[in-house]
Each structure stands twice: as C-alpha cells, then as structure tokens.
Amino acid sequence: MAPQTRPTGYTTAQIALHWLIAALVIFQLILGEDIVPAYRAFRRGTEATAAELSAANLHVYVGLAVLALAVLRFAIRMRHGVPPAPPGESAWQRRIAGAAHLVLYGVIFGMPVTGALAWFAGISSMGEIHELAKPLIIVTVALHAAGALWQHFVAKTDVLLRMLRPEPRRGA
Fold first, then answer.
1. Alpha-carbon torsion (87, 89, 91, 93), positive or negative
2. Least CB-packed of 19, 22, 52, 158 within 10 Å?
3. How far is residue 98 from each of residues 64, 101, 104, 144, 172, measured CA to CA in Å?
4. pTM
5. Which residues of the chain fall below pLDDT 50?
6. 118 located within any domain
7. Greatest CA span in the chain, whole angstroms?
8. What is the C-alpha to C-alpha distance for residues 64 and 99, in angstroms, rounded to an integer?
9. Cβ partners under 8 Å of residue 124, min gap 6
C-alpha cells in the first residue's frame, strides 16, 4: 500500500537495490554473450563443455537475481512511494521521466523472464526476444543515466543526489 504522503527521498534499501541491480545489469551486458555457446548446444541437443555450462549458469543465476531484486525493489516502491518530481519540472519532463521509468522497469523485469523462459522452458522465441531486447536495455539505461546527469548538472535539481543519499528516517 502506498503511503499517504510522498517521501522526500529514497530509503537506504531503495538506493542499495537500485545500485545493485544497475551493477548486475551492467555485468550481464558485458559478459552476457558467454551464455551463447551453451544455449546453442542446448538447442542442438548436444553437450556444452563444463566451461560453457559454468558461464551459462552464471548468466542465468545473475539474471534470476536481477529479477528477484527487481521484485523486491518494486514492492518497496509500492509500500514506501517515491519522491515527487523536482519543483518547477514541466509536464512534458514528468511524462518523459515516467515513460523512461516504465520502459526501464519493463526491461528489468522482461529480460530475466524471457531469458528464463528460453533457458529453462526451451522457448526459442523468448530467446530471440531476449536477444533483440539487449539494445533496448542499453539505450534505456544510457538515457536514464543521461537524464540523471542532466538533472544534476543542467537543471541543478537534487534528483541524482536522492539516489545517493537516503531520506532521513521519519521521526528521527
């Protein structure tokens, strides 16, 4: 249940989950191709080498961790809420930020789900979607980071700082 009043910042848990998910997503993007040889062997019905299987397992387990952490982060978001847009932000800027967050959550949930369906259920179309979505997550993450930097250095808002410093505890 969302709180009655909007928080002024993010909780320590929200911030930690944001940066942990970000690090794991970047890790997946850098090392994600390591799953390809094992996945191809799996699709052909042949055996993958131990090294290929280890690399694939790492990719799969990190992807499942991203999904679990994203679910936890979303649950905290629903319970705690999020800070309002910066004062003076225009309606079009709020719409862009909202759309960007919607796409970001979509790919953060969608990538692990499609990957898991491809790997565990053998649904090759999910593997294709997973692969085709890679540029989308790269662009979305880059735009998200650029937007945060623009807010900090150009618009001079506290948007970036809110994701670095936790909100003071209520009643403290």
1. negative
2. 19
3. 25, 5, 10, 11, 31
4. 0.91
5. 172
6. yes
7. 61
8. 25
9. 43, 118
